[in-house]
Every structure is written in C-alpha cells, then in structure tokens.
Amino acid sequence: QKEVEQNSGPLSVPEGAIASLNCTYSDRGSQSFFWYRQYSGKSPELIMSIYSNGDKEDGRFTAQLNKASQYVSLLIRDSQPSDSATYLCAVNPDTGNQFYFGTGTSLTVIP
Amino acid sequence: SAVISQKPSRDICQRGTSLTIQCQVDSQVTMMFWYRQQPGQSLTLIATANQGSEATYESGFVIDKFPISRPNLTFSTLTVSNMSPEDSSIYLCSVDGGRGSTDTQYFGPGTRLTVL
User: I need a labelling partner for A64 at 20 to 30 A (CA). Which of A42, A48, B17, B51 fits?
Assistant: First the structure.
C-alpha cells in the first residue's frame, strides 16, 4: 500500500506570515513529488514539482524534499488571502505515471 | 500545459441510468487518467486510459461499472453505469504533461455528478 499522509488542518495563518504544509510518504522508491492547490469547487492546479533532495523555490513557494526521511513540504512566504485553499501532496512512485494523493491540508489566510 | 475540457460540467441523474463524461485535450498526450473526488475527500484514481489498449482499472473499480474509451491521443470518455446515489461525486480527467514531462499530471475542470 503506497500511502501519502498530510495533516488535514485546517491551518490558519495571518496575512504576510509563512504557511508550512507537510507530507510524508511510505514508498521509499518514490521519485517525483508534486504540490497541487485546489480552490473550493475547482479542480487541482499544479503549483510545484520536486525531484531531488533539498529546496526548490518558485516565487513565494518553496518545496523541500528529504528522501531519507520520506518527507516533502511546501512553504508559502508572505501568505495572501488568495492562498486560502486545500493543498494536495502527490507522489509518483515510479515511471508508471500513477499518482498517489494525500487527503489535503486546508489553509486559511486571515486578512 | 495542455488545455483540458470536460463535458458535461455538471449533471443530475436518476438512479439506474448511465452518464458518459467526455474529456478533450488540445494536444496529443500519452496518458489520460480518470479520478473521482467525493465531497471533502482527496482524489481516487479510477483508471488509466491508454490509446489503443484496454484501460487499466484500480482496485475497487471495474469495467462494467466504469467503461472507458480512448479512441485517439486527445480524447477519452468515462461512463458511469447503473448509477446509485453513492456515485455522486466529482469526476476529473487528467493528462500527462506531454513531451518532456510525462510524469506530471494536469487536471480538467471536472464533472459534478449528483444521483437522485
């Protein structure tokens, strides 16, 4: 069973703060990791992908991967109310394109 | 990324009927996927649709209930057969990222299905 676990939240942060979202996965052989943002009533939108240990930055978003600890996180700096959404962690264990999704973390940024 | 459309965007159906959902992509993709997302839940993969071969179904999903077609590299359909209220859900089509990023998935807007 390939599992992806996230804290369901809800996570609330004040506007301008850093939001930290965490994800752990069970398949040690996993190679590709993704963060999706899903607004209420909308479909998931890809915001970050990461493949190597360390940090990857894209604007206000930073993805962090630690394969030894089987842990991937997403940091959102200078959080804005428009960042309020559910964030889904997804893991691709191999080249078969099958994704495993976490249950998502609900984030609310308070103005 | 590819532009993905789904039809219908939403529907309300009677128990025992069937609904076919269409997924259209504006570019050729190798892999197309069908997911279900029940209220307040994460995404569950139903099946992977490959052009020119039978769809591959995940545990708990069968072809008789969810027949899938993939006639070409830009189009797929998912049929929800003999519906019951438990089939009420959002059904999402996704595609791989195409050349150079086949391990990425992009989602269509979804079909919101309500079964009475």
Answer: A42
pLDDT value, residue A104: 93
pLDDT tens figures, B8-19: 999 999 999 999
Residues 6 or more apart whose CB falls under 8 angstroms from that of A51 comprise: A31, A32, A33, A65
Q: In this structure, are residues A62 and A92 in contact, taking their beta carbons and an 8 Å threshold?
A: no
Separation between Cα atoms, residue A17 and residue A40, nearest integer Å: 22
Range name among A6-20, A60-74, A89-103, B42-56 with the lowest pLDDT average: A89-103
Alpha carbon distance A82, A62 (integer Å)? 17
By percentage, how much of chain A surpasses pLDDT 70? Answer: 95
Query: A40 or A96, which is more confident?
Result: A40
Residue with tokens 């600890």: A69
Verify whether the Cβ–Cβ distance B108 to A92 is below 8 Å.
Answer: no
Do B104 and A46 lie within an 8 Å CB cutoff? yes
User: Across-strand partners of A88?
Assistant: A36
Residue contact B103–A92, C-beta within 8 A: yes
Smallest CA–CA distance, residue B106 to chain A, in Å, is 7
Using the Cβ of B96 and the Cβ atoms of chain A, whether some distance falls under 8 Å is answered with: yes
Tokens 């595609």 label which residue?
Answer: B95
Is pLDDT at B77 greater than 90 in this prediction? Answer: yes
Contacts A99 to B, Cβ<8 Å: 33, 45, 105
The C-alpha atoms of residue A32 and residue B101 are separated, in whole angstroms, by 11
